[in-house]
């Protein structure tokens, strides 16, 4: 069945159309449709922050059904941070609501003359003034629109950070879920689009409901006793924190020294014991991985995620529980990507240490200064704060900082150290969105028992054998999950769905029979288009890591003396992908995949 798209030009109107049959056949939907549209319909050399850039939201064919872990969405664009392809992901219910309005893909183009929000309600598509929402945080914006329009709406919004032009601003779904990694929020705000509201509707029918429930029950039963699933169920993505500490993957002072794992664990333990626990996971999901803490005064704060802890507690050195809770809350409400914010703050603090920046505004471990910085950059100023630029652009502005700036291709690196985790290091170096390993969700090095369905051989976190092949598997499976609409956290962070179960679920919901080879090809096409887009449009598409991680081994801790052998890893990675020695997909490989330049 052809994919249904709605294109909204914020200055001219909207139109519905069906995408060519080949998009559904070769890319399935979701992120696959986004990759195809950006490659085929974005005009060459379109500036990321321009009316002509496309901002595309999509949920895969599983979204909108009664199946759990299928309500999220992917959003893609030309990234203002890298110039290449940019993606963000969020769970929740907004993606399901979009498909229940008979929309597989929502394309936003143009720029509104004034702040507005988009309302989608069946056949009704309207732009309404958002002047009364300007300055409101993402939680308040979602609550206000729900009150105005009725409680059965799902709201995406940008916060004050996006309004102020922060390059790593995030979109927030339903006032609950940050869209990560960074970049898409800056594009949405640049278009003066404050929010997108979709009215939820009835569940979509499926081809074989009994078979769907059988597959979901298999996934549920696996997760009930699985140690990784139990850890994530208890404390969210921070369930991987003990392994990161044990392996020496947390480093401090912008990765110059091992972090104090005992202190970090103590800080998080104290945070987790505070207040009442409120799960805000997706409906019916057996792995509710988002958790709020309610204080005695009735306020709620997000339980810090793995990336937030690694970034602010380890990399920046903040061990005050109150400060960490406040930072988590600020990131959600202001609409700021935590990994990118922590990288920018750590970079600026080290630049001040080295005398590369004269004015001293930050110190290691100073939570109050970090909170003040987040608040400051989220307010419109006559002279733009350098912290609002993102670490890639900051590096260009601070002479002599390239060796230690935690970025690849312009996108911030989350704070798990690639000297401790070889596969994650390779993922950071090669990801087409920039230096964020969440493109591939290759968390296996932090999992006690990686799933048996990963390709052999397995090897230790600091070893190289098998890492290129297993990263490629993660890339393709992550792309297939995003194309289908199944949650990448449940599917990869927790490893709770097998490829065979995903194939069976797609068949049960859509009636489309696909094989294992089909699934692999769908994932490979998406990854290849992402690669082609970034190689064509990014100002720096080199696969590398900052010199700090390649040439400066730590002198103590579990990873002492070790740096990742990136050059050898890249050689194998390119060869296994069928790319040439420079990392470009070969004509023969493109022909096999049916991709034309």
Automatic annotation (TrEMBL):
Xref: InterPro entries: Ald_Fedxn_OxRdtase_dom2, Ald_Fedxn_OxRdtase_dom3, Ald_Fedxn_OxRdtase_N, Ald_Fedxn_OxRdtase_N_sf, OxRdtase_Ald_Fedxn_C, Tungsten_al_ferr_oxy-like_C, W-dependent_AOR
SMART domains: AFOR_N
Cofactor: [4Fe-4S] cluster; tungstopterin
Transmembrane segments: none
Keywords per UniProt: 4Fe-4S, Iron, Iron-sulfur, Metal-binding, Oxidoreductase
Domain Aldehyde ferredoxin oxidoreductase N-terminal: 1-202
Listed Pfam families: AFOR_C, AFOR_N
GO terms of molecular function: 4 iron, 4 sulfur cluster binding; electron transfer activity; metal ion binding; oxidoreductase activity, acting on the aldehyde or oxo group of donors, iron-sulfur protein as acceptor
PANTHER family tied to this protein: ALDEHYDE FERREDOXIN OXIDOREDUCTASE, TUNGSTEN-CONTAINING ALDEHYDE FERREDOXIN OXIDOREDUCTASE
Protein family: Belongs to the AOR/FOR family.
Name of the protein described by the UniProt record: Aldehyde:ferredoxin oxidoreductase
Originating species: Chloroflexus islandicus
